[in-house]
Each structure stands twice: as C-alpha cells, then as structure tokens.
Amino acid sequence: MKAYTLSSLLLSALALALAARPDAGSLDAATIAVQELDRVLSLPGQPSYSPAFKQYSGYVTTDEYLGKALFYWFFEATDKPDEKPLVLWLNGAANLLFLDSPAGVGFSYTNTPFEKDPPGDNSTAHGSYTFLVRWFQRFLQHKAKEFYIAGESYAGHYIPQLANVILEENKKASKENYINFKGILIGNAYMDGDTDLWGIVDSAWHHAIISDNLYSDFQKNCNFSLVDLSPECTADISQFTALYNIIDIYSLYTDRCELGYPDFNSSFSAQIGRTSSGRLDLMKMPMGYDPCTQTYATEYFNRKDVQKALHADITGMPHAFSLCRNSISNAWKDSDLTVVPVVKKLVEAGLRIWIFSGDTDARIPTTSTRYTLKKLGLQIKEDWSPWFHRKQVGGWTVVYDGLTFVTVRGAGHMVPSTQPAQALELFKHFLANTNLPSKPF
C-alpha cells in the first residue's frame, strides 16, 4: 500500500488527567533523563513567535529480532497538558504525538527486507500496539489518561484494527500495560471495498465528473465485492482515473497545486494491473489532501539540520525521506475487503465512535461513508440534522445507537486542512462527548 508519513499518516496524542496517574513532578530521575534524550529544543526555521510547548521525538523499538523501530514526534499541549485527553491520530488543543508507521515509512526503519517480512494491516496494528505500550513506559505521566484513536483515510482500516488489538490485549494485560482506551474518531475513511468504490463512482457522476456513458459502463462491468476485477471494469477505472489527473480528487472545488502533483492515473493503473489483488491496491493509493505542502515537507524533512534536531535517521537510511514509498505498496500482504465486522465489535464494546466526512472529497466521498454505515444496521436515534460553527452550518449529523456520523460542509479529504475551524469544533465535542451545536452561536 501507499504508506503515510508525518504529514499524512500520524499518531497524535491529546491528554486528560486521571487522579491515580503519575504526573511530571512525581517521575523519577531516570525516567526524566530518558525523556530528555528525546527533547526537541528548537527546529530550523521555527518562528520566534511560536507558542510555548514541549516537544519530543525519537525512536521506539517494536521488534528487536527484525530490527524494527518506529519514529515518533510528540507535542505537549500549550495549555495545561496534564488536563487533556490522549488521542492517537492516524494518518495528522492537546498533546500531539506523530508516528511514522509501519516500519519503513518516513524515518521509521526495519533491518529486514520486505520480501522476508512483508508489511500489512495485521502487522501494522500489532506494531502500533507495541509502540504504544513501550511509549507509555517512556512517558509514564500520560499512562493512565483517557486514550482515543483518531485519523482519516486508510485509517479506516488502521484504527478499527488497532482498536481491536487494544481491546483484546487489555483483557490479559498487566496493570503496567493496560491502556485506558475509550473511543475512536475516523474521517473520510476507507472501511468497505464494495460500498466505498461504488460511492466513489456514484459521487463522481453526481458531481458531473464522469459521463453518463462511463457511469453506465461501471454499472454493467464492475462488481466491487470481488477481489478480481474484470478487464472491462479495469478499463473503466483507467478512464475514471484519467479525469482526476486534471482536478484535485481530494478537494473537488479547490485549485490544484501548480508546483506539481503525483500522477494519479499512472499510480492507479500500475497498481490495478500488477496482480489479482489489484482490486485491493486500488483503494490503497495515497489518501492525503496535499495540494502543495508535500513538496515543502519532503524538502524540509530531508534537511540534515532538521533530522539532527528531530533525532531522526540515526541509521543512515539508503533512501531519502519521502511521503510515500512504492516498495511498501508493492510488498503489502494483507488488506481486509471490509472492516465493518470489526466496527460492529467496537460498537458492541461500548466505545465512543464518531465517523466524520468532508463533503467535497472525491477520494472517499460522503456517499461512500453513508453506504458503508448502512451495512452496520444501527438504529437511528437522531436523524439528519444541521450542526453549526458560529453563525453558519458546519455540516450535518446523524446519531445512531452506538455511533455518531458527522459531515463537514466544504471540507475535502483531509478535513483539518480545508476547514480547520470546523474540524477543531468537531474534535472538541468528540473529546467532551457532547453534541455539536444545533443552533448558531
């Protein structure tokens, strides 16, 4: 699969204090010393007017035998960090922890060739769990805080799978390794191959991106519930992807970056035609709204002074830092066709679950998410209603029994990038477990 790095695949952390947890003032000298080794004092180009906060970055070994270590970047909240909840943000007002995952992405590394130890959904979930256990051992002051996982895009796989691992491991975990896990928040998420792909096609037709003839051909030639696609369906997909080489699939109504953009069509077509699993690869393209920042980010993180400041690339990787690595995509060994059964299990476990969707995304459009949610078969408690950000409608919401669905009006694939104020409103209410505003304010 196309793998995400610091700018498109993140682990983030936000922290809410519990009475029984150790705080920074009660840590022993050895623990503080280990944390200080990862302390980032400043970054090249960091504005002098930046708000005051602590940040740490470094590596956590997740597999000694295979030589795997994941790179993280952690930011404490600017205001009362000991009183904020902890959230794992997968794929980018609190404590933030970014993670390059799986091993081999960004600054994370593995000493074992992918041919001998191929990456996949299952190994990524277990590797992320191992990272969390060991990261909490390093940062004990965050250990007992309420913990949430949030993210977007292919995190629709990563988050439910990691959540399931945490639930299962918590059943047998010692007190030292128990994670105070409370809920998940996922946006524009790839969760079900069949409904997500039909949602992409239907949305493209409704937004006048594809012709009536191509739409009819999709309906005639494609069965997205199958792993292997017919040659006719593959040809239809090639026509479809060509159209998104001239507009931004991640944010339909914003201009494309003029500094250059990855060739959507060639990447798409190459993955489809490679093997019989191309149908799954089709959904694992880069899933980030990144019209121009990826060029800046790649250049910045390849600077040696930046890497030194972040304690990164300590092994001298044989390749440059990049936002996506085709070698990981080509080696990816498992990707479930659907995670709907896993999401059902999480609902039954009583976790707080919010699913959100930027409504101008064409990569995993709102249509796809609505189709997928129908498969859960949950009872509706509060039907389609507007929610507000200040004086304007921020989007729409449906409250199910055990799950809340929220749209974000005018947002693309990466909601915080295109509608940051609405995204912050959404995150605040998720963490507070309160309904979004139903009236202007």
From TrEMBL:
Signal peptide range: 1-19
GO MF term set: serine-type carboxypeptidase activity
Superkingdom field? Eukaryota
Q: Keyword check for Glycoprotein, yes or no.
A: yes
Q: Which organism is it from?
A: Setaria italica
Which family does the similarity line name? Belongs to the peptidase S10 family.
Q: Name one GO biological process term.
A: proteolysis
Q: Which SUPFAM superfamilies match?
A: alpha/beta-Hydrolases (SSF53474)
Could you tell me which InterPro entries the record lists for this protein? AB_hydrolase_fold, Peptidase_S10, Ser_caboxypep_his_AS, Ser_caboxypep_ser_AS
What are the protein's UniProt keywords?
A: Carboxypeptidase, Disulfide bond, Glycoprotein, Hydrolase, Protease, Signal
One Pfam annotation, family name?
A: Peptidase_S10
Q: What is this protein called?
A: Carboxypeptidase
Q: EC number(s) for this protein?
A: 3.4.16.-
